[in-house]
Amino acid sequence: MLLSQVETPSYIIDEGKLIDNLKVLERVQQEADCKILLAQKAFSNYFVYPLIGKYLAGTTASGLYEARLGKEEMGKENHVFAPAYKETDFDELVNLCDHIIFNSVAQLMKYKDKCLKAGVSIGLRINPEHSTQGDHAIYDPCARGSRLGVTLSNLQQALAKDPTVLDGVDGLHFHTLCEQNSDDLESTVEVVKEKFGQYLEKMNWINMGGGHHISREDYDVNRLIRIIKDIKETYDVEVYLEPGEAIALNAGYLITEVLDIVDNKIKTLILDASAACHMPDVLEMPYRPPLMNSYEYDKKPYKYRLSSYTCLAGDIIGDYSFNREIKVGDRLVFEDMAIYSMVKNNTFNGIPLPSIYLQKENGECQLIKKFGYEDFKNRLS
Ligand SMILES: *Cc1c(COP(=O)(O)O)cnc(C)c1O
Questions:
Q1: Which residues are substrate-binding (predicted)?
Q2: Which residue of 175, 176, 185, 343 sits with most ligand 1 atoms within 8 Å of its CB, as the best mutation to test the pocket?
Q3: The whole model's pTM is what?
Protein backbone atom coordinates (compact mmCIF):
# COMPACT_ATOMS: atom_id res chain seq x y z
CA MET A 1 0.00 0.00 0.00
CA LEU A 2 1.19 3.54 -0.70
CA LEU A 3 0.99 6.50 1.67
CA SER A 4 -1.82 8.01 -0.42
CA GLN A 5 -3.91 4.85 0.05
CA VAL A 6 -3.86 4.36 3.84
CA GLU A 7 -7.09 5.08 5.70
CA THR A 8 -7.33 8.12 8.00
CA PRO A 9 -6.43 8.72 10.70
CA SER A 10 -3.18 6.74 10.57
CA TYR A 11 0.26 7.07 12.01
CA ILE A 12 3.10 6.29 9.64
CA ILE A 13 6.50 5.37 11.02
CA ASP A 14 9.21 6.29 8.51
CA GLU A 15 11.77 3.49 8.57
CA GLY A 16 14.36 5.36 6.51
CA LYS A 17 14.28 8.34 8.84
CA LEU A 18 14.44 6.06 11.88
CA ILE A 19 17.57 4.42 10.46
CA ASP A 20 19.12 7.85 9.75
CA ASN A 21 18.60 8.75 13.43
CA LEU A 22 19.97 5.43 14.63
CA LYS A 23 23.11 5.91 12.54
CA VAL A 24 23.82 9.23 14.25
CA LEU A 25 23.41 7.53 17.64
CA GLU A 26 25.60 4.64 16.52
CA ARG A 27 28.34 7.10 15.64
CA VAL A 28 28.15 8.62 19.14
CA GLN A 29 28.38 5.17 20.72
CA GLN A 30 31.39 4.25 18.63
CA GLU A 31 33.35 7.50 18.77
CA ALA A 32 32.67 8.27 22.43
CA ASP A 33 32.69 4.61 23.54
CA CYS A 34 29.40 4.96 25.41
CA LYS A 35 26.06 3.15 25.51
CA ILE A 36 22.74 4.54 24.31
CA LEU A 37 19.38 3.18 25.45
CA LEU A 38 15.90 3.73 24.01
CA ALA A 39 13.71 5.58 26.53
CA GLN A 40 10.48 3.73 25.82
CA LYS A 41 8.37 6.47 27.36
CA ALA A 42 8.70 8.47 24.14
CA PHE A 43 8.30 5.64 21.64
CA SER A 44 7.29 2.08 22.43
CA ASN A 45 6.46 0.77 18.99
CA TYR A 46 8.00 -2.62 19.58
CA PHE A 47 7.42 -3.71 16.00
CA VAL A 48 10.65 -1.82 15.23
CA TYR A 49 12.55 -2.85 18.42
CA PRO A 50 14.52 -5.50 16.49
CA LEU A 51 15.70 -2.73 14.14
CA ILE A 52 16.51 -0.34 17.00
CA GLY A 53 18.29 -3.15 18.84
CA LYS A 54 20.70 -3.52 15.92
CA TYR A 55 22.07 -0.08 16.74
CA LEU A 56 21.47 0.66 20.44
CA ALA A 57 22.64 -1.02 23.66
CA GLY A 58 19.13 -1.64 25.02
CA THR A 59 16.07 -0.10 26.60
CA THR A 60 15.12 1.94 29.64
CA ALA A 61 11.74 1.93 31.33
CA SER A 62 9.65 4.14 33.59
CA GLY A 63 8.15 1.21 35.45
CA LEU A 64 7.10 -2.42 35.34
CA TYR A 65 5.20 -2.51 32.05
CA GLU A 66 7.84 -0.75 29.99
CA ALA A 67 10.52 -2.87 31.66
CA ARG A 68 8.67 -6.02 30.64
CA LEU A 69 8.18 -4.74 27.10
CA GLY A 70 11.87 -3.94 26.72
CA LYS A 71 12.88 -7.37 27.97
CA GLU A 72 10.34 -9.22 25.80
CA GLU A 73 10.78 -7.29 22.58
CA MET A 74 14.41 -6.09 22.54
CA GLY A 75 16.09 -8.32 25.09
CA LYS A 76 19.30 -6.31 25.48
CA GLU A 77 20.39 -4.19 28.47
CA ASN A 78 17.26 -3.24 30.38
CA HIS A 79 17.26 -0.31 32.83
CA VAL A 80 14.45 1.18 34.89
CA PHE A 81 13.92 4.44 36.74
CA ALA A 82 10.75 5.38 38.61
CA PRO A 83 10.12 8.07 41.24
CA ALA A 84 9.05 5.19 43.53
CA TYR A 85 8.60 1.42 43.24
CA LYS A 86 5.67 -0.59 44.55
CA GLU A 87 6.58 -3.57 46.70
CA THR A 88 4.25 -5.73 44.64
CA ASP A 89 6.25 -4.90 41.48
CA PHE A 90 9.75 -5.21 42.81
CA ASP A 91 10.37 -8.98 42.67
CA GLU A 92 9.39 -8.95 39.01
CA LEU A 93 11.53 -5.87 38.31
CA VAL A 94 14.74 -7.44 39.62
CA ASN A 95 14.12 -10.34 37.25
CA LEU A 96 13.48 -8.10 34.25
CA CYS A 97 16.12 -5.41 34.74
CA ASP A 98 19.91 -5.39 34.96
CA HIS A 99 20.03 -1.76 36.18
CA ILE A 100 17.57 -0.22 38.68
CA ILE A 101 17.78 3.48 39.49
CA PHE A 102 16.32 4.96 42.66
CA ASN A 103 14.93 8.44 43.14
CA SER A 104 15.52 8.82 46.87
CA VAL A 105 17.75 7.50 49.63
CA ALA A 106 14.69 5.97 51.33
CA GLN A 107 13.80 3.95 48.20
CA LEU A 108 17.44 2.93 47.82
CA MET A 109 17.65 1.63 51.37
CA LYS A 110 14.30 -0.13 51.09
CA TYR A 111 15.28 -2.20 48.04
CA LYS A 112 19.09 -2.30 48.13
CA ASP A 113 19.38 -5.84 49.51
CA LYS A 114 16.95 -7.26 46.95
CA CYS A 115 19.02 -5.73 44.15
CA LEU A 116 22.32 -6.95 45.55
CA LYS A 117 20.95 -10.49 45.96
CA ALA A 118 19.65 -10.50 42.39
CA GLY A 119 22.92 -9.10 40.99
CA VAL A 120 21.23 -5.95 39.71
CA SER A 121 23.39 -2.85 39.23
CA ILE A 122 22.09 -0.08 41.50
CA GLY A 123 21.87 3.59 40.51
CA LEU A 124 20.82 6.74 42.34
CA ARG A 125 19.24 9.66 40.52
CA ILE A 126 20.69 13.00 41.53
CA ASN A 127 19.28 16.48 41.08
CA PRO A 128 22.08 18.90 40.19
CA GLU A 129 19.62 21.80 40.67
CA HIS A 130 20.83 23.43 37.49
CA SER A 131 17.89 24.57 35.33
CA THR A 132 18.65 25.06 31.64
CA GLN A 133 15.16 24.97 30.18
CA GLY A 134 13.74 28.49 30.33
CA ASP A 135 9.99 28.31 29.74
CA HIS A 136 9.17 24.58 29.94
CA ALA A 137 8.71 24.27 33.72
CA ILE A 138 6.48 21.20 33.28
CA TYR A 139 9.48 19.35 31.81
CA ASP A 140 12.13 20.76 34.16
CA PRO A 141 13.23 18.28 36.85
CA CYS A 142 15.45 21.01 38.32
CA ALA A 143 12.54 23.38 38.95
CA ARG A 144 12.09 24.57 42.55
CA GLY A 145 10.58 21.86 44.74
CA SER A 146 11.15 19.12 42.15
CA ARG A 147 10.54 15.57 43.40
CA LEU A 148 12.97 14.11 40.85
CA GLY A 149 16.45 13.17 42.05
CA VAL A 150 18.39 13.54 45.28
CA THR A 151 19.82 17.01 45.90
CA LEU A 152 23.35 17.39 47.22
CA SER A 153 22.12 18.62 50.59
CA ASN A 154 19.70 15.69 50.96
CA LEU A 155 22.46 13.25 50.09
CA GLN A 156 24.87 14.88 52.56
CA GLN A 157 22.27 14.72 55.31
CA ALA A 158 21.62 11.05 54.62
CA LEU A 159 25.35 10.28 54.63
CA ALA A 160 25.82 12.15 57.91
CA LYS A 161 23.21 9.89 59.53
CA ASP A 162 24.39 6.70 57.84
CA PRO A 163 27.79 6.70 56.09
CA THR A 164 27.00 3.38 54.36
CA VAL A 165 24.17 4.80 52.23
CA LEU A 166 26.17 4.68 49.01
CA ASP A 167 27.70 1.25 49.66
CA GLY A 168 26.67 -1.07 46.86
CA VAL A 169 25.62 1.82 44.61
CA ASP A 170 27.16 1.41 41.18
CA GLY A 171 26.12 4.50 39.30
CA LEU A 172 24.68 8.00 39.34
CA HIS A 173 21.88 9.14 37.04
CA PHE A 174 20.73 12.62 36.12
CA HIS A 175 18.00 13.70 33.72
CA THR A 176 17.54 17.44 33.41
CA LEU A 177 17.21 18.24 29.69
CA CYS A 178 14.32 18.38 27.22
CA GLU A 179 14.86 18.85 23.47
CA GLN A 180 18.23 20.49 24.16
CA ASN A 181 21.63 20.79 22.54
CA SER A 182 24.98 19.73 23.97
CA ASP A 183 25.83 23.22 25.28
CA ASP A 184 23.21 22.75 28.01
CA LEU A 185 24.57 19.29 28.71
CA GLU A 186 28.04 20.78 29.07
CA SER A 187 26.96 23.33 31.67
CA THR A 188 25.01 20.61 33.51
CA VAL A 189 28.00 18.28 33.58
CA GLU A 190 30.14 21.07 35.03
CA VAL A 191 27.69 21.39 37.94
CA VAL A 192 27.43 17.61 38.39
CA LYS A 193 31.23 17.36 38.61
CA GLU A 194 31.46 20.22 41.07
CA LYS A 195 28.70 18.95 43.35
CA PHE A 196 28.83 15.18 42.97
CA GLY A 197 32.37 14.56 41.64
CA GLN A 198 33.60 13.04 44.91
CA TYR A 199 30.81 10.42 44.75
CA LEU A 200 31.23 9.81 41.04
CA GLU A 201 34.82 8.81 41.67
CA LYS A 202 33.56 5.68 43.42
CA MET A 203 31.03 4.73 40.74
CA ASN A 204 31.22 2.41 37.75
CA TRP A 205 28.81 4.30 35.54
CA ILE A 206 26.97 7.56 35.00
CA ASN A 207 23.69 7.87 33.11
CA MET A 208 23.09 11.33 31.63
CA GLY A 209 19.37 10.76 31.03
CA GLY A 210 17.42 11.91 28.00
CA GLY A 211 16.42 15.21 26.43
CA HIS A 212 19.47 15.19 24.13
CA HIS A 213 18.19 16.13 20.65
CA ILE A 214 21.12 14.30 19.09
CA SER A 215 19.47 13.53 15.74
CA ARG A 216 18.31 17.12 15.20
CA GLU A 217 20.06 18.87 12.33
CA ASP A 218 21.69 21.63 14.39
CA TYR A 219 22.77 19.36 17.28
CA ASP A 220 26.49 19.60 18.05
CA VAL A 221 27.38 15.89 18.08
CA ASN A 222 31.12 16.52 18.29
CA ARG A 223 30.72 18.47 21.50
CA LEU A 224 28.63 15.62 22.95
CA ILE A 225 31.38 13.17 22.10
CA ARG A 226 33.97 15.44 23.75
CA ILE A 227 31.87 15.72 26.93
CA ILE A 228 31.46 11.95 27.19
CA LYS A 229 35.14 11.26 26.59
CA ASP A 230 36.08 13.80 29.24
CA ILE A 231 33.83 12.20 31.89
CA LYS A 232 35.10 8.73 31.04
CA GLU A 233 38.68 9.88 31.40
CA THR A 234 38.16 11.89 34.58
CA TYR A 235 36.15 9.32 36.54
CA ASP A 236 36.88 6.04 34.74
CA VAL A 237 33.18 5.30 34.34
CA GLU A 238 30.93 3.79 31.68
CA VAL A 239 28.63 6.47 30.23
CA TYR A 240 24.98 5.89 29.35
CA LEU A 241 22.56 8.15 27.51
CA GLU A 242 18.86 7.34 27.36
CA PRO A 243 17.18 9.61 24.82
CA GLY A 244 13.62 8.99 23.70
CA GLU A 245 12.90 11.74 21.20
CA ALA A 246 16.26 11.52 19.43
CA ILE A 247 15.54 7.94 18.34
CA ALA A 248 12.36 8.64 16.41
CA LEU A 249 12.64 12.41 15.90
CA ASN A 250 10.85 13.41 12.66
CA ALA A 251 10.34 9.72 11.90
CA GLY A 252 6.56 9.67 11.86
CA TYR A 253 3.45 11.29 10.42
CA LEU A 254 -0.21 11.48 11.33
CA ILE A 255 -2.43 11.46 8.25
CA THR A 256 -5.88 12.96 8.61
CA GLU A 257 -8.81 13.95 6.42
CA VAL A 258 -10.82 17.19 6.39
CA LEU A 259 -14.42 16.29 7.35
CA ASP A 260 -15.98 19.75 7.32
CA ILE A 261 -15.17 23.46 7.26
CA VAL A 262 -16.93 25.81 9.70
CA ASP A 263 -16.73 29.57 9.14
CA ASN A 264 -17.39 31.66 12.26
CA LYS A 265 -15.03 34.62 11.73
CA ILE A 266 -12.24 32.02 11.53
CA LYS A 267 -12.33 29.27 8.92
CA THR A 268 -11.97 26.06 10.93
CA LEU A 269 -11.15 22.68 9.44
CA ILE A 270 -12.75 19.74 11.26
CA LEU A 271 -10.32 16.82 11.03
CA ASP A 272 -10.71 13.13 11.86
CA ALA A 273 -7.74 13.50 14.22
CA SER A 274 -7.65 15.22 17.60
CA ALA A 275 -5.12 17.10 19.68
CA ALA A 276 -6.68 15.75 22.88
CA CYS A 277 -6.66 12.11 21.71
CA HIS A 278 -3.78 11.82 19.25
CA MET A 279 -1.30 14.63 19.97
CA PRO A 280 -1.88 15.60 23.62
CA ASP A 281 1.49 17.39 23.82
CA VAL A 282 0.01 20.05 21.53
CA LEU A 283 -2.24 21.01 24.44
CA GLU A 284 0.10 20.05 27.29
CA MET A 285 3.42 21.56 26.19
CA PRO A 286 1.85 23.48 24.32
CA TYR A 287 3.14 23.67 20.74
CA ARG A 288 1.97 23.90 17.14
CA PRO A 289 2.85 20.69 15.28
CA PRO A 290 4.55 20.88 11.89
CA LEU A 291 2.18 20.22 8.98
CA MET A 292 3.36 19.30 5.47
CA ASN A 293 2.94 22.00 2.78
CA SER A 294 1.71 24.61 5.26
CA TYR A 295 2.92 28.00 6.50
CA GLU A 296 2.59 30.39 9.43
CA TYR A 297 -0.96 31.73 9.67
CA ASP A 298 -0.20 35.15 8.18
CA LYS A 299 2.07 33.99 5.36
CA LYS A 300 -0.25 32.64 2.63
CA PRO A 301 -3.70 33.57 1.26
CA TYR A 302 -5.66 30.52 2.51
CA LYS A 303 -5.81 30.65 6.30
CA TYR A 304 -7.41 28.03 8.56
CA ARG A 305 -7.65 26.92 12.14
CA LEU A 306 -7.14 23.15 12.39
CA SER A 307 -9.42 21.40 14.82
CA SER A 308 -10.99 18.08 15.61
CA TYR A 309 -14.27 16.19 15.59
CA THR A 310 -14.34 15.79 19.39
CA CYS A 311 -16.79 17.89 21.46
CA LEU A 312 -14.00 19.67 23.31
CA ALA A 313 -14.07 23.37 22.36
CA GLY A 314 -10.36 23.65 23.08
CA ASP A 315 -9.39 20.68 20.88
CA ILE A 316 -7.53 23.04 18.56
CA ILE A 317 -4.33 21.93 16.87
CA GLY A 318 -3.18 25.30 15.58
CA ASP A 319 -3.54 28.03 12.96
CA TYR A 320 -1.95 27.51 9.54
CA SER A 321 -2.02 28.97 6.02
CA PHE A 322 -1.72 27.36 2.59
CA ASN A 323 -1.00 28.19 -1.05
CA ARG A 324 -4.28 26.61 -2.11
CA GLU A 325 -7.83 26.41 -0.90
CA ILE A 326 -8.48 23.41 1.35
CA LYS A 327 -11.58 21.35 0.57
CA VAL A 328 -13.61 18.71 2.41
CA GLY A 329 -11.99 15.34 1.68
CA ASP A 330 -8.43 16.71 1.45
CA ARG A 331 -5.76 14.86 3.40
CA LEU A 332 -3.38 16.73 5.70
CA VAL A 333 -0.16 15.28 7.09
CA PHE A 334 1.21 16.22 10.50
CA GLU A 335 4.95 15.70 10.87
CA ASP A 336 7.18 14.55 13.74
CA MET A 337 4.36 12.34 15.04
CA ALA A 338 6.29 9.22 16.10
CA ILE A 339 7.33 10.47 19.55
CA TYR A 340 5.05 11.10 22.55
CA SER A 341 2.04 10.41 20.30
CA MET A 342 1.11 6.71 20.01
CA VAL A 343 2.24 6.16 23.62
CA LYS A 344 -0.15 8.88 24.79
CA ASN A 345 -3.19 8.02 22.68
CA ASN A 346 -6.59 7.69 24.26
CA THR A 347 -10.20 7.16 23.11
CA PHE A 348 -11.71 10.22 24.82
CA ASN A 349 -15.06 11.08 23.23
CA GLY A 350 -15.16 7.60 21.68
CA ILE A 351 -12.74 8.77 19.01
CA PRO A 352 -11.09 5.80 17.26
CA LEU A 353 -7.37 5.16 17.63
CA PRO A 354 -5.39 5.79 14.43
CA SER A 355 -4.00 2.76 12.60
CA ILE A 356 -0.23 2.35 12.63
CA TYR A 357 1.83 1.67 9.48
CA LEU A 358 5.52 1.27 8.79
CA GLN A 359 6.69 3.03 5.64
CA LYS A 360 9.58 1.01 4.23
CA GLU A 361 12.48 2.66 2.47
CA ASN A 362 10.93 1.79 -0.93
CA GLY A 363 7.76 3.74 -0.04
CA GLU A 364 5.58 0.69 0.63
CA CYS A 365 3.40 1.05 3.74
CA GLN A 366 3.01 -2.09 5.86
CA LEU A 367 0.14 -2.28 8.34
CA ILE A 368 1.37 -2.79 11.93
CA LYS A 369 -1.91 -2.41 13.79
CA LYS A 370 -5.53 -1.48 13.25
CA PHE A 371 -7.88 -0.65 16.13
CA GLY A 372 -11.63 -0.88 16.51
CA TYR A 373 -14.63 -0.50 18.78
CA GLU A 374 -13.40 -3.25 21.13
CA ASP A 375 -10.27 -1.23 21.98
CA PHE A 376 -12.52 1.58 23.21
CA LYS A 377 -14.99 -0.66 25.02
CA ASN A 378 -12.58 -3.06 26.72
CA ARG A 379 -10.88 -0.43 28.84
CA LEU A 380 -14.10 0.80 30.38
CA SER A 381 -15.78 -2.17 32.02
C1 LIG B 1 11.62 11.24 29.69
C2 LIG B 1 12.87 10.64 30.12
C3 LIG B 1 13.83 10.24 29.17
C4 LIG B 1 13.68 10.50 27.68
O5 LIG B 1 13.58 11.87 27.41
P6 LIG B 1 13.49 12.44 25.92
O7 LIG B 1 13.17 13.88 26.14
O8 LIG B 1 12.38 11.73 25.22
O9 LIG B 1 14.81 12.23 25.27
C10 LIG B 1 14.97 9.63 29.65
N11 LIG B 1 15.17 9.41 30.97
C12 LIG B 1 14.26 9.78 31.90
C13 LIG B 1 14.53 9.51 33.34
C14 LIG B 1 13.09 10.40 31.51
O15 LIG B 1 12.20 10.78 32.44
A1: 245, 281
A2: 175
A3: 0.97
